[in-house]
Amino acid sequence: MSNALQCDLARLVARVEREDGPRAAADPYRQRFHLMPPVGWMNDPNGLCRCGEWYHVFYQYGPFDPTGGVKHWGHYRSRDLLRWEKLPPLLYPDQPWNIHGVYSGSALVENGTMYLYYTGNVKFAGDYDYITAGRGHNVALAVTHDGVTVDSNELLLENKDYPENLTCHVRDPKVWAQDGKYYMVLGARTKEDRGELLVYESEDKRRWQHVNTLTTPDLFGYMWECPDLFCLDGQWFLVCSPQGVRRQGNRYQNIYSCGFFPLYGDFRSDYTLGAYQELDCGFDFYAPQTFLDGSRRLMIGWMGMPDADYTNPTVAYGWQHCMTVPCELRRNGARLLRWPAAEIDALRGTRIAPEQAQVFDLECITSEKGRLVIRGAAVIEWEKQRLSLTLMRGGAGRTVRYADVDALAALRIIADVSSLEIFINGGEQIMTTRYYPDPSSCGVQIDGAAAEIWTMGALQI
Ligand code: FRU
Hints:
By secondary structure, the chain is mostly beta strands. It starts with a helix and ends in a 5-residue tail after the last strand. It contains 2 helices and 32 strands. The structure holds beta-D-fructofuranose (FRU). Beta-D-fructofuranose is lined by residues 43-44, 60, 71, 103-104, 119, 171-172, 225-226, 286-287, 306.
């Protein structure tokens, strides 16, 4: 099913990828083992799933503008999370209900078919604040059996269908099947600027009933973006990206936060949310999404931050942002641990000496106090209960972030050409950031830790 606008957009995207792709590929900061847009802009992962033998990663893709632009659903697929195939975008802003962007959403897989629930963004022309008026945020459903052809695309819910007292900001459906029914959570901003989640139920995947609203007793930000709700090892977790939470000490250091609440009780009726914990305390982690792969739950996040006051130098080469490595989630009481999926270990090459490290995977046992200097650009320092990440050179405006830890025991650092993912104590806390060292620099100086370091290979795309 396609229309004339979609046909033209598909041709235009193919053309900019062909014409601008070589310039992006020539950027010395192009990553080696993280998914990036071929050209233009990337933000949230969307529709993550395993369908038959394929893993699918759709993503917010602005092919025409490395600083944003109108969003499509870009698409990669893989059988092993290592060899990826770039496919044309699956969803284009080509319908009246998504004409200003096919915004974020998720996949429900049933009998080899992907049901992709997404947000259709519409911005009306006029003198609006685009919060309480002037914007349509619609829930729509696109169905595809192969990720290449859209079998159907339909509007399911519009702003008038949501509960009263909400602004126009209602988006990012996450859908799953449970107890013979379907459930959906949507992030929302109320007219009182309170962030909350709407819970919907359906028997047939198309007609949805609002059954509950989840929020905190005390105000916690004005909007909860990109919600996810799942049970892991007997405990429910509500993941979301709240906006408008003020910094408190070393918490909420970025403009927007990203974390989880343990949820007790039943999300459909009586529930309580436990203490919120951040999923990451680096500079660039937002809007993650999880999916089930057999018995494991994998998470991929966007390695970026909306409305941040720094810009990646990659914009000069016509592209911006990337995904994190896929991670497996584990439960430790009311906490979520995040650790690179086992597949990432297969990218490890030979063991190398610290002075040779450039793109690497490093594991170390730490003593009470210590310091790592990576490629002369990033310094990780720890003493007692605090770890800091300072970008000295190549921070592109980023400076320092802190992690409070009970006791630091171990670090794993996955360093790509222009990113660091720092896993503290087996994934209790993580710091994710882009950084831009001198392209020819190499070496890690290590004080206060015994480290093993491997070179890292590349994804095949
Ligand atoms: C989060 C977000 C989502 C929205 C999408 C638009 O980064 O703002 O709430 O659906 O990005 O690209």
